[in-house]
Amino acid sequence: MHVRVASAQVQQGKMQELIDIYNNSIVPSFKTLKGFKSAYLMTDVGSYTALSVTVWESEAVLTEAEASSTYQEIVAAASDILGGPIDSDTYELSVEASV
């Protein structure tokens, strides 16, 4: 599996709006994309920073998803409340554990 880690600054006072958009719009949109496994959003209100982690079946499906119009709509939905560009990296998931 492969993981996309994206971080961005959020405009002051817009963190809850980002959380709502992520939960109510972005995650449901991700669920329509082939190979999507899971999504996590971490936030730090004090530094106005948000970190999104998405897990995908493979690097190929992640690349395919990023090229889709749905993915571009997801990025656009969040861009209005971000305070700058989205920085992202891709990693291979090497260990997964849960209780």
Features:
99 residues; Alpha-Beta Plaits; four-stranded antiparallel beta sheet; 3 helices; 4 strands; globular
Task: Outline the fold blueprint.
Layout: E1 2-9, H1 15-31, E2 36-44, E3 49-56, H2 59-67, H3 69-79, E4 87-92
Antiparallel strand pairs: 1-3, 1-4, 2-3
Helix pairs in contact: 1-3
Q: Give the number of domains.
A: 1
Mean of all residue-level pLDDT scores: 91
Helix/strand order, N-terminal first: EHEEHHE
What's the multimeric state? single chain
Query: What is the fold named in CATH at topology level?
Result: Alpha-Beta Plaits
Text of the CATH class: Alpha Beta
Structural class: alpha+beta
Shape: globular
Work out the helicity level: 25-40%
Number of strands: 4
Distance between the termini: 19 Å
Low-confidence stretches: none
Main beta sheet: strand number and arrangement? Answer: 4 strands, antiparallel
Radius of gyration: 13 Å
Any overview of this molecule?
This protein is of the alpha+beta class and 99 residues long. The protein has a single domain (2-92), classed as Alpha-Beta Plaits, CATH 3.30.70. Helix content is 37%, strand content 31%. It has three helices and four strands; from the N terminus they run E-H-E-E-H-H-E. It has helices at 15-31, 59-67, 69-79, and strands at 2-9, 36-44, 49-56, 87-92. Strands 2-3-1-4 form a four-stranded antiparallel β-sheet. Helix 1 (15-31) runs antiparallel to helix 3 (69-79). The longest helix is centred in the N-terminal third of the chain and has 17 residues, at 15-31. The radius of gyration is 13 Å and the shape is globular. The two termini are 19 Å apart. 15% of the residues are buried. The mean pLDDT is 91.
